[in-house]
Amino acid sequence: MAETDPFFANSQPPGWTKDELTKFIETANRNAWATYVHLPEYAKRLNVVHLLFKTAGENLTNSPDWFTGFFLLKSHSHYLAATRLATSCQIPETYMVLRGCLESALYGFYLHKHPASRVVWLSRHNDEASKKQVRREFQIGTMLDEVKGIDTSLANVLEQLYDQTIDYGAHPNERALSAHLRRQDGDDFVQFNYHYLDDNPLALQLALKTCLRVGIDCLKLFRLVYQERFDLLGLTQQIAGVSQGL
Predict the structure, then answer these.
(1) In this structure, are residues 86 and 160 in contact, taking their beta carbons and an 8 Å threshold?
(2) What is this structure's pTM?
(3) pLDDT, tens only, 200-217
């Protein structure tokens, strides 16, 4: 859209950064630019994982596992959103979206293994009984157990990553809050500030690394569904390459 809409011919729309919301968005955007410039190795790897997702999603034509493909696309979308948040230094929010990335991949794999459960999943909003049935069947532990039946090592990593997302922001846990608080002591006051955009370099690099690990391991999970296509497209080899050192 940016290439064809004349509105985007200007660098900024009229009034941009003149209010508090667009000031915040602009600061977040500039943080993303700074991450790209100062952490180029992360930026390069994040792009590689994006392209792996993109290639996989564009090559599902005539697959008998077409339904799981929807979840591959959704997982990719979550990955991109998490990457945008992380590079912008919105650290706890990154983990909330990474949890969604993992859940989309786990749902997709589970429904590949249990195609009859598609009807259960699709019927969630029919009535209260249907909603309860979905809640009973589609539990993270249950879906991880399905992965363990195929690849115990991958399942353990996915479980570790899932727990990490919850610890660092997917739930309002102590660590997700306290890590981004700053205390200031005065003569007669104590003030706490919460950093919406956290410039802590260690927190930023951990978030970027977690984006990479979650994206890669979700791709590994989808490979269990689309192994032949991943192998033919060279994705299996590329996933192994981008995984090095993580």
Answers:
(1) no
(2) 0.91
(3) 999 999 999 999 999 999
